[in-house]
Design a protein that fits this description.
The complex is a heterodimer of chains A (144) and B (267). Helix content of chain A is 72%, strand content 6%. Chain A is mainly alpha-helical and 144 residues long. Chain A has a domain at 2-71 and 115-140. Chain A has a two-stranded antiparallel ribbon. Chain B is of the alpha+beta class and 267 residues long. Chain B is 68% helix and 7% strand. Chain B has helices at 2-23, 27-30, 33-55, 62-78, 110-115, 119-134, 137-146, 148-155, 161-173, 178-194, 200-212, 221-224, 229-240, 250-266; strands at 57-59, 87-92, 98-101, 105-109. Chain B has a 4-stranded mixed sheet with strand order 1-2-4-3, with helices on both faces. In chain B, helix 4 packs antiparallel against helix 14, helix 6 (119-134) crosses helix 10 (178-194) and helix 7 crosses helix 8 (148-155). Classes of the chains: A mainly alpha (144), B alpha+beta (267). Chain A binds chain B through residues 75, 87-90, 92-96, 98-100, 102-103, 106-107, 131-132, 135-136, 139, and chain B through 1, 3-4, 7-8, 11, 15, 18-19, 22-23, 25-28, 31, 33, 136-137, 140, 143-144, 148, 180.
Amino acid sequence: MIATSTFKYEPSEHELEKAANSYVMSLVAIMGGFPLPIINLIATFIFYLGNLRGTYFVRWHCIQALLSQFFLLPFNSVGFWWTVSIIFTPETITSRYIAYILTIFIFNLAEFIGTIYTAIATRKGRHIEWWVIGGLTNLICKDK
Amino acid sequence: MKKILTELAITLGIIAAVWLGLSQVDWMKLFRIEQATRNTEEKIGDLFWKMLKNTETEITSDSIVAPVDSMLTKICAANSIDRGKVKLHLLRKDEINAFALPNNHLLIYSGLIASCENEAELYGVISHELAHMEKNHVMNKLIKEVGLSVLISMSTGNGNAEIIKEALKHLSSTAYDRSLETEADLTAVDYLEKAGINPEPFANFLYRLADETKNLPSQIYWISTHPESKERAEKIIENIKGKSFPNVEAKDSLRFAGLKTNLKKSS
């Protein structure tokens, strides 16, 4: 799901730290955003805005972190509103609902572990490209 | 771009496959959710009934309970509803009210029986409350209005008397959602049809009490807790338009007249 490749140039120590921070930012936000999936996205987006004028390497990783949040957002939102409807409407808990919550839990956990791994690897100077997200980031983020 | 789309399709496929795979497991059984819900419902229903029994007068006379009981049995039998699970209680009170409590307790006030002009009207009310039970409206309403945590704390014996009283009030004197009331009405019509009873008198009952509410608002709980009665009556009439029903059984009519006489005598 994640692949290590070489970036177009050798990033400086300062860039590595900033790029790794974009992943740390989404991790911190996950803690606060578990019941409200939109919070992770907002936090990562704010960090991305703060680094719009950053170097190519920093921007690239900020966008990858942001897109990784976007990817699970619809799935988490469905889970959130499904839960709300169970609490506040006649909708009841079913095996299908529990299976869905478990599914998004597994994928959120995978993303969480992937984010930790990427943050550490980026800090060490390795360029990590995620499955799907990495390709999309390459499409969006261009070297100025 | 093609590579990204392929990767995206594979990922979505994996997510769908995991969900589908996990859906094959009977999580409800595994986590004993249904059992836990049933236990909570039983405890709360019995708690509410115990509280009502201590504050109201229950009618136990066979000459009054038996006819209503046999009406309930008739509806249940015609609709494959387990009669054994429904606990019928008649209470002596002038309020025109009937309601269902969790764990299939069905409560009917003597005031409501007295206000019915014929047995088909009472059949309608019984069917309506049975529908609330069968469609699980009772617990859903409680969860929505009181909260699951409060209900669980009540069922474990930690609820205080005031909270229990308040929750009970939600069931006896406040309305269900409009959609739930409509669902209960239409299900009741279905129950009545299957039992060979004309639902029209049930609609008439709603019409009549809606008019009477203007004069006696505090007494007619069953209508004040069931808003838009005229609109509901119209929906029932609309639903049965063009259908024919057998004439009301003479045996039932006689029994109902006897029931009302006994009710009057005993008060």
